[in-house]
Design brief:
Layout (H helix, E strand, L loop, with lengths): L1 E6 L7 E8 L3 H11 L12 H22 L6 E8 L5 E9 L5 E10 L6 H11 L8 H18 L5 E10 L4 E9 L5 E8 L5 H7 L11 H13 L3 E8 L2 H5 L5 E10 L3 E10 L3 E10 L8 E9 L2 E11 L7 E14 L2 E15 L4 E15 L5 E18 L7 E12 L9 E14 L3 E14 L41 E12 L4 E13 L8 E12 L2 E10 L9 E6 L4
Parallel strand pairs: 2-4, 5-7, 8-10
Antiparallel strand pairs: 1-2, 3-4, 6-7, 9-10, 11-12, 11-26, 12-13, 13-14, 14-15, 15-16, 16-17, 17-18, 18-19, 19-20, 20-21, 21-22, 22-23, 23-24, 24-25, 25-26
Length: about 575
């Protein structure tokens, strides 16, 4: 392995000095090489090279010996050889190293005092230390073990912990080392009162959130971290800082109860987020979300969502009421909205009202029970206008597991829903609708990303003509079958207009490769159908390429696609979007 350093002369002359290291391999070579790379630069010229050579050899000798000692080699043999080029312009210092015999850990004595004697985590650490017996001495592992004792003390509330003895004894003639550590943890502190400072939400709600911390329970920093995450997840606070009141520790009080202070800063009362996209057939698309994160001391919130594009406009308002006993796991939401569409000869106006009860289950599962009512005005096959009034409950079950970032490396998203309408409770029609939508993402070697998704839907009814177009299935467009116009795939009625389908089946496979730091290239193929009779297949397939850019403004998506092997559809479709496609 050759390490070269350029030494600049004080005069106009400069010389190249190279270092060649021999006799080491594996981890020894890597560690020593890293140490030598940090050596200071030494001036050298043709008049003082011999002096520089001597000084540099001394530095090399000491650096190599120090690094080998940390790895358990206390008796290395080191000698140097200087080679000069024929023109005396280049020098090579060859460092020959024989690491010598390894120093073995011959004894491990770790003694605990205080409450740590009864702590399973500390007992496990002591058991780990015993495994070092008979292994090669490594100073780094020794200090890491000591650090582990101290860090565990801070994490579990042993704030008076100290080392009564911590010796690493070396016997160079015997090539043996001995650990001798006596650690006194003292008493473990316990949780006192949870006190909130600067909060705009009433104390009862906050104490329910903090119910994971109980007065008198043993101190645990992980619980404080969980509490901080719960407070941040409420979206009520811009910042959250949680810390124990350590005054009793510093004052030497015998009372081992610590109060916990949660200092919060209220979230901005109004937040506005926008995303923009473009497709060839729909043109410019704009989505704006106005979120009033808290309205009162009970944590109620309002969100307004506006979707604007030439053929379709929608506005939705959501009023959220969290449960006192569990603000995040359970809440009620009242939703109302208006939707207007005139696309691909599909026309309708719809007003909807929805009451939802949401509950977060364990292991990333959640479910929602909805009672939805809607009034939809649309033309039917006879071209006469019709108004359908529906009241239908539904159950939704979802699972979501994802990593962080604009391009998450792992995603597992599952969505299952069932909706029922019946004339028995004064709905105009009877139907059963169920849908399944899954997205799966995996990343290999941080540069190769695979995305698979599926979407299946089924409507069971005898009154398709009276089912509003907003409920029927259409395919085509982004997040469906790229290469086809948005919602352009469905059966047609007797007048040649798209009528929507009773059955939907979509699948997509996408491969993405990182081509720069924040830039990904992608190739995809989408396939599926929207039909009334699954025995009469009408499968459409689109394929294309695209780019994903993790820009400062968010993830920017650019796709270009075309239909594959379709006699009736030709041309390219362009999709540009901002924000995650999940």
């Amino acid at each position: 392995m050759i390490l070269c350093a350029l030494f600049f002369a004080q005069h106009t002359y400069s010389a190249n000095v190279c270092l060649q290291l021999t006799g080491l391999n594996g981890n020894l070579l890597s560690q020593v090489r890293n140490r030598l790379s940090s050596l200071s630069i030494i001036d050298a010229n043709e008049d003082n090279m011999d002096a520089t050579d001597y000084r540099f050899k001394s530095l090399l000798n000491e650096a190599v010996r120090e690094e080998l000692r940390t790895l358990g080699y206390y008796s290395p043999i080191i000698y140097f050889e200087l080679q000069r080029s024929s023109d005396n312009q280049h020098y090579t210092i060859i460092t020959h190293v024989n690491p010598g015999k390894q120093t073995i850990i011959a004894g491990v004595n770790v003694v605990l005092h205080g409450d740590a004697c009864y702590d399973l985590d500390y007992q496990q650490l002591v058991d780990v230390s015993k495994k070092e017996l008979g292994t090669v001495l490594n100073h780094t592992l020794y200090y890491q073990f000591k650090t582990g004792l101290s860090e565990l003390a801070l994490s579990k509330g042993y704030f008076n912990a100290k080392f009564e003895k911590s010796n690493l004894n070396i016997s160079p003639p015997r090539y043996q080392a001995y650990w001798d550590i006596h650690f006194n943890s003292g008493k473990r502190y316990r949780f006192g009162k949870l006190r909130f400072h600067g909060a705009q939400i009433c104390e009862d709600y906050l104490q329910k959130i903090g119910s994971i911390i109980n007065f008198g329970d043993p101190y645990n920093a992980n619980l404080l971290s969980s509490l901080q995450n719960r407070l941040i997840a409420s979206n009520w606070f811009e910042s959250v800082v949680i810390s124990p009141d350590l005054e009793k520790v510093t004052s030497g009080s015998k009372d081992n109860i610590l109060n916990i202070d949660a200092r919060v800063k209220p979230q901005l009362h109004n937040q506005i987020k926008s995303s923009i996209g473009y497709t060839l057939n729909l043109g410019l698309q704009l989505k704006t979300t106005w979120d009033k994160t808290w309205l009162n001391k009970y944590g109620h919130s309002i969100k307004t969502i506006i979707n604007l594009q030439v053929p379709e406009q929608a506005i939705e308002m959501q009023y959220k009421v969290p449960f006192v006993r569990d603000y995040r796991e359970q809440y009620y939401m009242l939703q109302g909205g208006f939707n207007r569409c005139n696309l691909n000869n599909i026309e309708y106006n719809s007003v909807a009202l929805n009451l939802m009860h949401y509950k977060h289950l364990s292991n990333s599962w959640q479910h929602a029970i909805n009672l939805r009512g809607s009034i939809t005005h649309f033309p039917i096959q006879s071209n006469d206008d019709y108004t359908t009034i529906l009241v239908y409950p539904s159950i939704l079950i979802e699972y979501m597991r994802t990593s962080n970032g604009l391009m998450p490396t792992i995603v597992n998203k599952q969505h299952y829903s069932v909706s029922v309408s019946n004339t028995a409770w004064n709905s105009d029609i009877t139907f059963l609708i169920w849908q399944i939508h899954n997205v799966w993402i995996r990343t290999l070697v941080n540069k190769h990303r695979f995305i698979m998704s599926s979407n299946i839907g089924w409507i069971d009814t005898r009154s398709l003509e009276l089912v509003p177009p907003s409920i029927r299935f259409f395919a085509g467009g982004y997040q469906s079958i790229r290469g086809y116009k948005y919602q352009s795939i469905s059966p047609k009625n007797n007048y040649g207009k798209l009528n929507g389908a009773l059955k939907l089946a979509l699948g997509s496979l996408e491969y993405q490769q990182q081509i720069a730091d924040k830039l990904w290239g992608t190739f995809f193929i989408d396939s599926g159908e929207a039909v009334n009779d699954i025995t009469q297949n009408n499968i459409k397939t689109g394929t294309g390429i695209g780019i994903r850019w993790e820009s400062p403004a968010g993830l920017i998506r650019f796709d270009i696609a075309r239909p594959l092997a379709d006699k009736h559809e030709h041309g390219l479709q362009l999709y540009i979007g901002l924000g995650s496609a999940l």
